[in-house]
Amino acid sequence: MEKNYNNIVKGLAVVAVLGLVAYIYQLYSGLIVTNMRNPFSWGLYVATWAFYVGTAAGGLVVSSAIYLFNARQLKPIARVAALTAFLFAMGAMIILLPDIGRPDRLYNMIIHPNFKSMLPWDFIVLSSYAVVSAIYTYTLMYPDIAAKGVKLPFYGVVGRKELTEEGLARLREESDKKAKRLAPIALPLAILIHTVTAWVLATQFARSWWYGGVLAPTFISAALATGPAIVILASLVVFGYKDKMEGTYTLLAKVSAVSAIIMLFMYYNDFMIRFWWHNGRDFDALKLVFTKYIFLHAVEVIFILLSAYIFIKYPKDPKKLVQGSLSVIVGVFAHRFLLLPPAYNIIPLRVPVIMHNETVEWSYPIAVGQIRGNLNNPEKVFVAYWSYVPSIVEIAVTAGVMAFLVLAFLKLVQILPVKEVEQ
Amino acid sequence: MRKLGMVIDLSRCIGCRSCAVVCKIHNSLPPGTWWQRVETVGAKEHMIPTGEYPDLSEVFLPIPCQHCENAPCVKVCPVGATWQREDGLVLVDYERCIGCRYCMTACPYGIRQFNWQSSDDSFKEGFKNAGFEENWFKDKEYRYGYPLDHRTKDGRLVFTLKRPRGIVEKCTFCVQYVDQGLLPACVRGCPGNARTFGDLNDPNSEISKIIRGRDVFKLLSDLGTEPKVFYIPPSRKEGKGGISYGKKL
Ligand code: SF4
Ligand code: SF4
Fold it and tell me: Which ipTM did the prediction report?
């Protein structure tokens, strides 16, 4: 077991370092090493960003539900949940770094923000979310930190205070009170990060795959499907499966399953409306999903349904819980990736042309931004379709960030008192 | 205040792509980047007629940046690097752009172009892929195009020969010329005189006179972006090239 754990940590460290190397390589060569180009200008990084924002939600929703809805079953895992919220909110911001062409100029976001754009708002809500979840985590852990201290590597124990029994009890009460006060801030923020992230995309009239009011609710339900799954996995890592926590896991599994079904309902509700008119950009985006991207679409639907089935059928079996969580994560990740191709490959500028008495929408091609091919086999300069597959560098960077987040989680749960002391 | 705009007469456009080439040279566009596109509507390749014989048509549609009055690219730019000047030009500040590419997603006309690699690298690669082993310029620092940096009155860099890596660029209506009272390169370079540039707010300007009383259209006008590029629809050409040779032919 110990050896296994060490191997996992080593493996993760290797992936994280490879990711860092890939990022340095990308910094050195430019975004040319990605497979994004002018007609397809956002790729895997942005999809992962949307995914992380989703997974970040679960944490604070779970922890604040304890106080807001009096869901006491969730109390034992509150700290772990809040910690995942913090890590994934950070992850969402980190994964945007490699997508930026000039990270050295990011300070412009602070000195010249344009509040008509949704991006500065997203930056604000995401960083507030990270801060609030950090405070939340700290508040929940404070009494134990004071009692036992935190053992930092190379530094020794910090934060320990001499406490009497009553003093500790008072601290616990205080922490509970403070958490209760933080809950009403945390929950709306958790909802906001998805809403604003969805708005970044949903406000774009040019992209019919995103445009409209359905994206934000779908984002929230997707978050409520993956968030609990992440918390389940994290708590299983920290606590293992204890019969005493049966209720906790069952509740999380149910929340995830119900949200997954609601998400699919909203997704297909949107499909129905696109399908019925059977024409135009909205329909063509849908058509792309069911032709060129049918495999990816099958992955998202099958895995999300599978997870809902597992969670409802076997909420008490730890092995099944892991399977269910992984499958919802895979499904929603595919769902996130599928945000992009139908958005970019339906070129907004189309001109209707009448051919054989039938109107055909002709897409105006876009310059790729690079000379491809060679003298004898030149490749197209202007294209109306870009089959985007992430490059090795993009995959390495994304995997690196993911590995880093898991590593950070594993380390933090070792250092911090994430387990509640039995009272 | 001036509102600069352009009108393009599609009857006059012969699809020669001179505007695109002239633009490329004057604005020192990197290989693979085009601020100006001309395509044959409905065709897979440029200059191939659409339809079925004998009902063929060949309409060329040149597209510069539309310099939208209600520009989505300006709205989405998180740092205000893309902005609209009082005279209506939509410009990119090369020193402020963070390269997030949100504007590329927002622009419905596919105008915006990103610098995926450094100027040196892209020229080197461009020459290589075009069959030249070495950088073809004798002086590696050489770039074709308007040689000076251009800044707006408030000091924002809107034109420079060697584009910084990782930023977005696009058609500026040749701001470096317009600010000196000259016409954009595409307008001067069009052999069919299809383009007219000028002040839309001045009722006596040439462009206002052309637009007035004519059937003009704007691209994707249903989106409400309010382009300042107007098009005169192509008229049906009788016989050869619009010249009537009489009933016989
Ligand atoms: S055409 Fe595109 S780049 Fe030009 S002003 Fe309009 S939205 Fe911006
Ligand atoms: S890429 Fe540059 S110009 Fe475009 S939205 Fe981002 S910062 Fe603004």
Answer: 0.93
